[in-house]
## 1
Amino acid sequence: MDKVLNWGLLSTAKINRALIKPLRASKRTRLLGVASRSQSSADAYASEWSIPRAYGSYEAMLADPEIDVVYNSLPNHLHTEWTIKALQAGKHVLCEKPLTLTLDEVDRIIAATKETGNIAVEAFMYRHHTQTLKVKELVDEGLVGQVQFIRGSFTFMLTREGNYRFVKEYGGGSLWDVGCYPISFARMIVGEEPVEVFGWQVLGPGGSDDSFYGQMRFGNGVHMQFDCGFKSQFRSFVEIVGTEGSIQIPAPFKPGLKNEIYVTRGDKQETIKIKGQELYLGEVDDMCDAVLHGKTPRISLMDSRGNIAAILKFLESAQEGKPLKIA
């Protein structure tokens, strides 16, 4: 029987709620602790969610030898610092996306995993879901022929004043927050890195992008377009177009327990029903498999590095107003 891994929440962020349920559903995990910047905040959160241990600082949780895995849900600009500190404290880390905001920071995390022998994984939950795996399988089997074009959207209205997502220095902006999803999805489907990008952005008062519009070209001839933003109604979809058909995915980034995708070939459309699972359970199971059985995580740090490289080049392109090659 597998050892039960003790998990600790590094912050009291809202996204924690998505992970608490699967951590309690898995027989291989135990939610042991939560850390905050003050003891009173940690105590209140631990009481609300029935978490046994509350730490009044992030360092205090990392010093607890019984914590095996840390979930880093801090704001984007703090991901690198605390992921590396957790690795050096002997913990494995599941870090919210984006893993980092620079390529140098990714490389520092990669180096820390090699030095410590501990595991760090970026928490792109949709990548583990049965719908995502099925779409990838259908494309690889040639259902739509040779892939030519992918388009995607992820927008919603962000109305919370003072939210860190509006602040450039905190890793804010819609591209880092939601645009990362269609970029990640396209890279996964194509199976290689883009060679050129072109982006346009609409900046908000905090200096980060409220909306972003991008195009991406792959070396094998596949093209991709996407939009993301904080100022449009909720929209979320991906379409994959090939020489023999297309696949429409109405809920690509937050699939649920019951899912449908639509395949069009000629004048016929087929609905494929896909049984799902609790959205965040897959990334918990993936981490357990990596820690307990030495399996390679589904999302490698080099995969994360590729996504961050594309995002950075998009931001540079939008600033310069021209297409840019990715070396």
Note: The chain has nine helices and 15 strands.
## 2
Amino acid sequence: MRDHGNYVISINKFVKWLGEKVEQAGITIFTGFAGSELLVENDRVIGVRTDDKGLDKQNQPKSNFEPGYDLKAKITILSEGARGSLTKQLIGRFELDKERNPQTYGVGVKELWELPAGRIAAGEVIYTAGWPLTNHEYGGAWIYGSKDNIVSLGFVMGLDYKDPRLDPHHVMQTFKTHPFVRQLLESGKMIRYGAKTMPYGGWFSIPPLAGDGWMLTGDSAGFVNSQRLKGIHLAIKSGMLAAESAYEALVDGDFSANQLSSYQSRVEKSWIREELWKVRNFHQAFEQGMFEGMIHAALQQVTLGRGLHERYTAHAGHKRLEQIGHLPAGGFGREHMLGPAKGDGKLTFDKLTDVYHSGTKHDDDQPIHLVIHDTDICNTRCTVEYGNPCQHFCPAKVYEMVDASDVPNAKEIHVNFANCVHCKTCDIMDPYQIITWVPPEGGGGPNYDGM
């Protein structure tokens, strides 16, 4: 967990800077477009179809309607981050997760604060583990001091917890009430909010990285060191290796799986594999709780990542949710992080206040980009079995159970899609896997300025 010699930067600003360098090199970047569908021909990926623009809520064309474009390419490289929608299509179509551990995820809830001068040094890094979680959940916090008295503070927790009433946003707000954190933030001002998921599964969850006409990089492939909770360096390196393989393929005029497999070989010969191999079983070791996980982690440290088994078993996070009827009476030590946080407006905040600070914007008159494939399950079965956990695990108050319009004393799901901060937790954690996150009309979403 040593970060000496590293930098505390804004990824948003870094990517903008990189974009300028790319354009100076003569490469065209198209912004404001969303890839909505992979183009596949004879089991070969031949490009991406962009989203339609100018559709209303009923998917009917408005006066400014423009159909999506078919962008064909010799090679399509998917770099969508965690749980990418096109990557999900690719993995499902070609069964790329076959004989792999299921991918598991964590969600990080983050705030930027402006603090009084001298409160924290630029470059100061603080990590915590556990509290306010119980032994049955996995997670911890980071506090990064940046220049101009800005501090990045957040709490990340594994999306494989058991209690469907648990609220990651509430966990973050409770964390800030710890005396050390409260004193750090006193008289400060919260200026930005966001949330993001990251893949935790490790080496044995990584799918094949290349096929006919396609490659996967970064979080889309699962390149995150789950012990250090870092993946930016792995994303950059995998992008560089994919570029080398793409260049060779263009020179040779061969875009087959056999040709692009050179990317897989490059990754396995690079320090990406070396780093991830040493933590290949790390997160899986925590499935039975924090204390047991720490013992396994110590054994893995001694055995260079192996631990008690060469390959630990794993389960998709949503499968670990327990039905509310099977939970112990009371909060089981979790009372301080169940249900929505109310917030005091100074140190702690409710979800809507935080969403306001995310700067997220979506055109209200567009198709809902959070597709629920069977709302009857939400309104009946999920209410009884899990208590509609989407109300809790979503860090942006997108999902609400409201009074049904046609059935007395009944509730129905309502989707406030304009609140969405694009973390994709709902796509990952829904117990029935009936929620699909798809890109909204290009350009919509949170404002990542400074994040």
Note: The chain is about 30% helix and 20% strand.
## 3
Amino acid sequence: MTEARGRRGGGRAARQAARLAAVVERVPFLTRTLAPVEVLSEEGLALLEENADTILEQVGIEFREAPDALELFRDAGADVDGERVRFPRGLCRRLVQATAPSEFTQLARNPERSVVFGGMNTIFAPAYGSPFVRDLDGGRRYGTIEDFRNFVKLAYVSPWLHHSGGTVCEPVDLPVNKRHYDMVAAHLTLSDKPFMGSVTHPQRARDTVEMARIVFGADVVEERTVVFSLINANSPLVWDATMLGAARAYAEANQAVMMTPFILAGAMSPATVAATCAQTLAESLAGMAYCQLVRPGAPVVLGSFASSMSMQSGAPTFGTPEPALVLYVMASLARRLGVPFRSGGSLTASKVPDAQAAYESANTLQPTLLAGTNFVLHAAGWLEGGLTMGYEKLVLDADQLGMWHAFCKGVDLSDEGQALDAFLTNEPGVHFLGHPHTLANFETAFYRSPVADNASFEQWEAEGSLDAAQRANGLWKRMLAEYEQPPLDDAVAEELAEWIARQKASFPDSDV
């Protein structure tokens, strides 16, 4: 009996690997067939747009240490008072709608992995910005460049992540002013999926563009979008010089940015859904309008990241109803504006990949998809309110993303989907297990998780009584062990490495 159980255990691992390998080659970005869920009427959405215009007109936005932005807005007809800019009603909307594309393609190094922003498309990217990493073996620790490269590899191997992401974790073992070289190089060489650039300093954004020119070709970068980046407002109602400088560097090069207020409702906005939505729209509109003044037609995305907070501790909370409502509303407002929308993810305040992490992540991811979000940052790996990137969490989240791929295809109403022939050729009372229709479809009829355990109790016990995190631990290690680097022209790789070496040698290390 023990030997038989052991064989089943080995078979289960082989089946998991086979299910992963069956789809690892390429799964395109998700194209939804289901209409987005609307939680507000046209009148309600119009009211929030009016409120956003009131904020822009009567309160205004501060553009700190950004004289170029003040000059551009003054020339466009805004009222500039010091660093405060007040906008005539509708000005920001007109600037965005006049030139910002409603859809755009981010070209990947492997063109087959390119992604389309906007419309009915959804793109999944891993979590972003965590200083810590966690796995079952080493626990919580500061991230390193090795961790960063591991997460780039895992995102590349995962069929359900369409995008390599950006700062998947902070490699704190490298100097702050030079780590962006290694991070961008990892995205460009260890993966051939689309990626995000550096935004922590305007020069680092320009470095990202230059590295992209080496790999893609300068003419391609001039004509196509190959870099996508996250630009955060300093809420409430402030854009600072660092973020604006990075946004300008990308917009000037015709590269895409998502202008995203990061709002902890009750602290960085009033503690209501409607007020948070109006503020988010106002801040993002001002940021996107700035990009259009820098270079008309530069691709922009309306970003929204809103969290509720514990009014007792001040800590952010996730998976709660109010941010879900903000997400639904902001997706609708982006569609009315005519630009792609970014929000959502698999968010949790839990420190480990436990039940809290699962239900909070599910409660965030469901409205993300049902709202019609186009770009989902933090889709996999997020722990501890974004402070930690989890190895097991990434694998568990990616499994859920695979399920959403299946769900968002909708109901198959083809002849095969209706299966009338199966009814007409099967007698009442006779099961369908051996029917030709079942035999022809059983491999693809239902999503099969590489992580979940659906075996009997006895088999689960015989295979080690592993919980989901323990199973995910084995899976990410196997993914890294089987990783194969995508090909890159030797001359291009050499030119990139030499350019990085020259840049690093040209100035001293710094912690800022």
Note: Residues 273-294 form the longest helix (22 residues).
